[in-house]
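[Q] Does anyone have a clean structure-token version of this?
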Amino acid sequence: MALVLDSISKSFSLADGSTVDALSGISLAVADSEFVSVLGPSGCGKTTLLRIVAGLETPTSGTITLDGERIAGPSPRMAMIFQEYSLYPWRTVIDNIEFGLEIRGMTREERKKRAIEYLDLVGLRDFAGRFPYELSGGMRQRVAVARALAIDPAILLMDEPFGALDAQTRNRLQRELLDIWEKTRKTVLFVTHSVDEAVYLSDRIVVLTPRPGRIREIVPIGLPRPRERTDVEFARIRRYVLDHVENMADTR
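[A] Here you go.
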């Protein structure tokens, strides 16, 4: 297994001295090249869990290992993509993609070659000299994907990356993400609040309970790709997962 979460719990201290338990006893193993989505009701700790995996938050208890090596902070073997695009507005598209490579000491010529390669992968080579404000939301997110992939991470962490987009753009980017995943075979841990998106993208869906987030069920998605949202089996799995999420919300 590439990524192993062992009994991850997280509590936050509040100003009044009380504590809030965000996550409790999360154990999960993600295999190489697997696409796993984390799904659950609002406030269940999905983003907190992803930030812990990324090394941006420290768990209250539990450990994370990547190929047997303990993760205790940001790792060059992982890259994270946020919902808000997080591009540098003063840098062009190609300069944004080159940023991580520049930090790693890659030569200018090597950086440019690598950046163009990943711009081609996301279909934005013609926009290399543009600035983020000149792009649509979907295009900005494709740049963010290219920037993350350019550093060649073992694991891609994605925090509701398409949540701010309209439905048509979101569906298109889901298809494009799967095309990229098929070509690169990166391990992906993907946080979403959309059941439809999780079923469309994933090998497995991890369903979390309301706070504190615990794993209620891990649902394998045995559908072949490409998947059709109108397929009877797709609809059955979507209904099964949705019932889990709705039932948890109703019993809070």
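[Q] Thanks! Anything notable?
[A] Strands lie at 3-13, 19-30, 35-39, 61-66, 69-70, 78-81, 155-159, 187-191, 204-208, 215-220.
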